[in-house]
Design goal:
CATH topology of the largest domain in chain B: Rossmann fold
Strand content of chain B: 35-45%
Shape of chain A: globular
Oligomer: heterodimer
Helix content of chain B: 10-25%
Radius of gyration of chain B: 18 Å
Distance between the termini of chain A: 29 Å
Strand order of the largest sheet of chain A: 3-4-7-8-9-10-15-16
Number of strands of chain B: 15
CATH architecture of the largest domain in chain B: 3-Layer(aba) Sandwich
CATH architecture of chain A: Alpha-Beta Barrel
CATH topology of chain A: TIM Barrel
Number of domains of chain B: 2
Strand order of the largest sheet of chain B: 10-9-8-7-11-12-15
Radius of gyration of chain A: 18 Å
Strand content of chain A: 15-25%
Shape of chain B: globular
Largest sheet of chain B: 7 strands, mixed
CATH superfamily of chain A: Aldolase class I
Structural class of chain A: alpha/beta
Order of helices and strands of chain A: EEEEEEHEHEHEHEEEEEHEHEHH
Structural class of chain B: alpha/beta
């Protein structure tokens, strides 16, 4: 029997597969497809303090092996989340991670502080890296100082374990990861989407109303694996890898690159039960390769 | 909603760029309602990546039917599938048309433009079951764009066709045909599916005549079941207009709810 569990220190996961924020709704959308308790956990859609309308459509464009989105973090806000959604999630026997957003450092702290007063949240994932905000994708993740300040501020108001989610749209991702770690982040997750653009050559207009969006899907996987490898070598906290994972083989690449757990994103849109399949296939792969503990593969790449 | 990864295509018909598949999928067929749709995997590879939303053309006796037009890579790949092969379906999805018993004995208009006729066949059948009297309007650019004329006639209800080029039926837009027909009739309800311009025009007409109506809207969709928030549109529900998901709150919306001036590329 293969041991799929992984220990992030602050959080034990029954298996390394998490569903990624922004691709899994608030979790409940996937209940018709399978028992959510099978998951290592899931990260609910990013929450700002107040409800958000999101960006004007069109919000999606499909590109080769990828998807560019500019949803703009449409969401219910913390109050409705805590009243109507969290009580349902709290009954589940799986890790519930809440993606925390903010327009500025104060809002990140206010969201974290508000959520901290409610039961059922296993960890926060600090979304300092969303490229979908108006000003062409500026966010704290773009420099180490702003990252440090934001993480520090959230740590001051909340004792809920904190994962910081990094943006790939930077020159030196390792320096941002180190800043997050220094400020007290207990884990690093990466990568968020890559800032991207597509043009309709007939109308000569951008395909997204927002002009830019975030590219996800298999197209970005090699970039993500490289960045996970770089960050995992540099930090001492656990790393959660994501970016275009569609199969157990993809997940294994991230684990071998140094990820203690992985997040599955865009694939959930195509096959709502894909996480389940990835977990099954991980187990099968480990059996076939006489791997007793999946955690023994973390960072095992010979490079 | 459920996933049927091995649904067998048992019949395929093709008219130029239009295709009709009859697919064996008992569980989806049993749950399906007119106006709902399927998310169909068009490739087992990673390209194209996403499923394609295709409306349910019919569901009976354990089978579902889809009627679609090739409009891009996804639908082209779908059209290449042959009878006898299997296909991966997710559905039935969304909120369909309202078919109420109070329509019994009433005349109702079902207006389809081009491939927008697809869900109206299923709808007209159900309307007939509750005792309503559907009048189906079927408009296209040319006679070749009306391949379902024969099939609709077999349903045994009134069918009025129009073509922009006058090659069949009323010469002109289907909206003009509806406008011309209205004074002689007293429909209790109107259902529509078709190009945005057609529906916006029909919405104006319905408002002028105080005719209640439902419209089926289209959008690019990421998932089809409410997870991605990619298919939203401004909808006026409980007060202020806000972005609602077409896949989950729709694709069918009440006439009064739809905000038309929200031009997608404005």
């Amino acid at each position: 029997m293969v041991d799929l569990s992984v220990d992030l220190g602050f959080l034990k996961l029954k298996n390394p597969v998490l569903a990624a924020s922004g691709t899994f709704g608030y979790g409940l959308e996937f209940k018709p497809f399978y028992d959510l308790n099978e998951l290592g956990g899931f990260v609910v859609k990013g929450l700002y303090f107040s409800p958000r309308e999101g960006n004007k459509p069109p919000r999606l464009v499909e590109t080769p092996c990828g998807l560019i989105n500019s949803i703009g973090l449409q969401g219910v806000g913390v109050e409705k989340f805590c009243q109507e959604i969290l009580p349902q999630l709290a009954q589940l026997d799986t890790a519930i991670i809440v993606n925390v957003c903010g327009e500025d450092e104060d809002e990140y702290a206010r969201v974290a502080e508000y959520l901290s007063r409610h039961k059922g949240i296993s960890a926060f994932e600090l979304n300092i890296s969303c490229p979908n905000v108006r000003e062409g994708g500026r966010c704290p993740a773009q420099n180490p100082e702003a990252t440090y300040r934001t993480v520090k501020k959230v740590k001051e108001v909340s004792s809920v374990p904190l994962i910081t989610k990094l943006s790939p749209n930077v020159t030196d991702i390792v320096s941002v990861a180190l800043a997050a770690q220094e400020a007290g982040s207990q884990a690093i997750s990466l990568i968020n989407t890559l800032l991207a653009m597509a043009i309709d050559i007939e109308t000569r207009r951008p395909r997204l109303h927002n002009i830019f969006g975030g590219l996800s899907g298999p197209a970005i996987k090699p970039i993500a694996v490289r960045m996970v490898f770089q960050v995992a070598r540099a930090v001492s906290v656990p790393v959660i890898g994501m970016g275009g994972i569609f199969s157990a083989e993809d997940a294994l690449e991230f684990i071998m690159a140094g990820a203690s757990a992985v997040q599955v994103g865009t694939a959930n849109f195509v096959d709502p039960d894909v996480c389940l399949k990835i977990i099954d296939d991980l187990r099968r792969w480990a059996e076939q390769h006489q791997v007793e503990k999946i955690s023994s593969l973390i960072g095992c790449v010979k490079a | 909603m459920l996933i049927d990864r091995q649904a067998r295509i048992i019949e395929k018909k093709t008219w130029g760029s239009y295709h009709l598949f009859k697919i064996e999928s008992p569980e989806i067929a049993n749950r399906a309602e007119p106006g709902q749709f399927l998310m169909i995997k068009v490739s087992s590879q990673l390209q194209p990546l996403l499923r394609r939303p295709i409306s349910l053309h019919n569901a009976e006796n354990g089978t579902v039917e889809i009627f679609f037009q090739v409009a891009g890579t996804g639908t082209r790949l779908l059209a290449e599938k042959e009878a006898g092969s299997t296909i991966d379906l997710l559905g039935p999805l969304g909120r369909g048309f309202t078919v109420e018993d109070r329509l019994k004995g009433e005349e109702v208009f079902c207006v389809g433009g081009g491939r927008g006729i697809a869900p109206l066949y299923f709808l007209a059948r159900k309307l007939k079951e509750v005792g309503a009297k559907p009048v189906v309007f079927y408009g296209g650019r040319s006679q070749e764009d009306l391949p379902l004329t024969g099939k609709l006639k077999e349903l045994g209800m009134e069918l009025l066709v129009s073509t922009d080029d006058g090659s069949a039926g009323f010469p002109g837009l289907v909206t003009a045909l509806v406008r011309e027909t209205l004074p002689h009739r007293s429909p209790a309800f109107l259902y529509a599916c078709g190009p945005e311009a057609m529906m916006e025009n029909l919405a104006q007409l319905c408002q002028e005549k105080n005719l209640p109506a439902e419209f089926s809207l289209e959008s690019i969709m990421g998932c089809g079941f409410g997870a991605c928030f990619g298919c939203v549109r401004k909808i006026r529900r409980n007060g202020q207009p806000s972005y609602l998901k077409i896949c989950q709150e729709g694709p069918v919306f009440d006439l009064e709810e739809i905000v038309w001036q929200e031009k997608e590329n404005g």
